[in-house]
Amino acid sequence: MVLVTGATGLVGTHLLIKLVQNNKSIRALYRSEQKKHHVQQIFASVFGATSDQFFNKIEWHQASINDIPALTPAFKNINEVYHCAAIISFNPAMDKQLRKVNIEGTANIVNLSIISGVKKICYVSSIAALGEPKNQFKIDETSEWNPESKHSIYAITKYGGEMEVWRGTQEGLQAIIINPGVIIGPGFFNSGSGFLFKRIYKGLKYHTPGITGYVAIQDVTKAMIELMESRHANERYILVAENMSFKQIFTLIAVSLKVEPPTKRVTPFFMKVAANIQWLLYRLFGISPTIYKSSVQSAFSASMYENKKIKETLNLEFTPIEKAVEETAKAFSKK
To answer: Where in this chain does the record put each NAD-dependent epimerase/dehydratase domain (predicted)?
Structure first.
């Protein structure tokens, strides 16, 4: 039996869809009925009239990954774990919550996997947890983490989660770590890359000159399943289809949504001033900021990622990002 944590998020939900299509016996963790219902709606958009038939194949278990007494029964008869649960935030004020879930929660999953005799775990990390390129132009799986460099609290906690998984491998657990780029996929338009579709549709005017890696959700879930079913273990894999500038991706999204693309380039000074003003408003009035110093840094940095390892390991052909954007935009227009 397979256990999926974070089953109501973007990766978890689309992973469930692929697993039920593969006739896997699945137990899925969830925290709220509202989020579980959202997954059911996405199943309906994928499977149509037969959606309940697929959705009801899943055994749902309500528990937080930080609630060990509630979490422990979920590991009964589990052979494989897909650990997708995480908090994604660049807000320094959420330091404790991020560490609690992304590091401590992952430690709980690893410990229970070892105790319960789980054979293999797949941990969904992030390109944020990767190090800096040395002599090569692109960041790859061997790029070493530099603790002296400036990192967002999200990056620090995802790296910390990876360390917990590597600890598990020293205790006999087989593990796969994936480091996906920005994931493009439908169904979640109030968070992550999905929120970007909403912002651009409403008329986003500005872009920054940064570059990062992008990948389609179907490629992420496909790679996860194939790696778990393979003999490969105790390895990490970057999942990036293309490295693109923010202007390029914003324009692709705008064209797919049939709206005007952002044309005004923002300067680092402007962004830093905006971040400082928002921080002041947060301290004075409790208004949650949307721009953080760490996100300003990434908005202006050019990070290029190498995908050679995963392509050679699985002979994987990535979905073009333009196609992934078009499919996601189509789903956005239907919602």
So the answer is: 2-231
